[in-house]
Design a protein that fits this description.
alpha/beta; Rossmann fold; 2 domains; seven-stranded parallel sheet; 16 helices; 13 strands; 40% helix; 17% strand; globular
């Protein structure tokens, strides 16, 4: 998201402040460098401050935003902030990536968070599945907008241009994500073992990440654990890979897949990955496989292995498929949303009274 906010912050008519959670806590398994948010007025909240409403309210009230953006209902402190600031802001926007799965608690969300949902003017969803959830929460079609996530084309698109010189190097599968159950890492490792048994010259598998399943990654034949890789180093890792694999059991979207395909890598992903539904087209730029199925994933790895004469073509197709989801396009969509809103009469009145600069607070 840092690249997205950076694009928005560069607009002369937007003053942006972001309240984000620091990832320094060991439980986050992703210790991002603070430089990731360079170019953005970003205030990082420690693990203790995440629930400190007084601290969050002070930051927001001092900034006095025209627009308040919150990331769903995951944080009681953020949802409380909506209730407190609603009379002072002209627009409340909620991002959400949770896919509709028909679970009992999802049916209750509309009741449980009714007071919050009534305060939200617009909701931005990750894809079709979260669009379905937003509709069931009672939002009208005109209030739902797609594209809550995007990838940084400034960092990753140049890699796609370098790919033609890389296809002759030793081929590698690449996984980037937390080493956790919901990411399907065990399924990937099992599928990779099956694949290695079926091919005389198997590709290696690079894994980038950290988490409770790290011991499962270490010591596996053909598998290299690169550990947690900072975003500024990830393009060089992608440049030396051949195909990207995202085997998640649960993945509301999956920016890592968009980054990899934007960098020119064919993709293999499970149907649980929201981004896979948007990006992957079977046999054109990768393979979509059943979630949690070792045999299906192993077959996809073998299929990719056998496509040596099509890798460059599929890589170019992958880069094309990722273009709609660049951070620059994200900024264009959000700019329209923040300027126009959904109700024409209301927005014309607001536009007449608005100052030239719009202050946006994202929590």
């Amino acid at each position: 998201m840092a690249a997205c906010w950076r694009h928005l912050a560069q607009r002369p008519d937007v003053d942006l402040r972001v309240l984000a959670w620091s990832t320094a806590s060991p439980s986050d398994h992703a210790d991002f460098a603070e430089t990731v948010a360079s170019g953005v007025d970003c205030r990082l909240l420690s693990a203790q401050d995440r629930t400190n409403f007084e601290r969050i309210e002070q930051e927001a009230c001092e900034f006095a935003p025209d627009v308040l953006v919150i990331s769903g209902w995951m944080s009681p402190a953020y949802t409380k902030l909506v209730q407190r600031l609603r009379p002072r802001v002209r627009q409340v926007v909620m991002g959400m990536d949770t896919p509709w799965q028909g679970r009992a608690k999802q049916f209750l969300t509309r009741v449980r968070y009714a007071s919050l949902l009534r305060q939200v003017d617009d909701v931005v969803v990750a894809g079709e599945r979260s669009w379905q959830y937003a509709r069931r929460l009672g939002f009208a079609d005109s209030s739902i907008h797609r594209g809550v996530y995007a990838w940084d084309e400034v960092a990753f698109a140049p890699v796609a241009e370098q790919r033609n010189a890389v296809w002759e190097s030793p081929p590698r599968f690449l996984y980037v994500g937390r080493y956790a159950e919901e990411k399907g890492l065990k399924t990937l490792l099992d599928a990779y073992r099956v694949y290695r048994e079926q091919r005389d010259d198997p590709w290696s598998l690079w894994c980038c990440g950290a988490g409770p399943l790290e011991s499962c990654v270490n010591g596996q034949p053909g598998v290299t654990n690169l550990g947690f890789v900072q975003p500024d180093r990830l393009p060089e890792v992608l440049r030396d890979a051949t195909a990207f694999v995202l085997p998640s059991n649960y993945e509301p979207w999956g920016v890592a897949l968009a980054e990899a395909m934007g960098a020119g890598l064919p993709g293999i992903a499970t149907t649980a990955c929201g981004a896979a539904i948007d990006l992957i087209r079977d046999d054109w730029n990768g393979q979509l496989v059943a979630t949690g199925c070792t045999s299906a994933l192993a077959e996809a790895l073998m299929w990719m292995h056998d496509q040596s004469d099509r890798l460059a073509e599929m890589g170019r197709n992958a880069a094309l498929s990722a273009q709609p989801f660049t951070a620059a396009n994200w900024c264009r969509r959000w700019s329209r949303l923040l300027e126009l809103g959904d109700d024409a009469a209301r927005d014309q009145d607001l536009h007449d009274r608005m100052p030239k600069q719009t202050d946006v607070a994202a929590a």
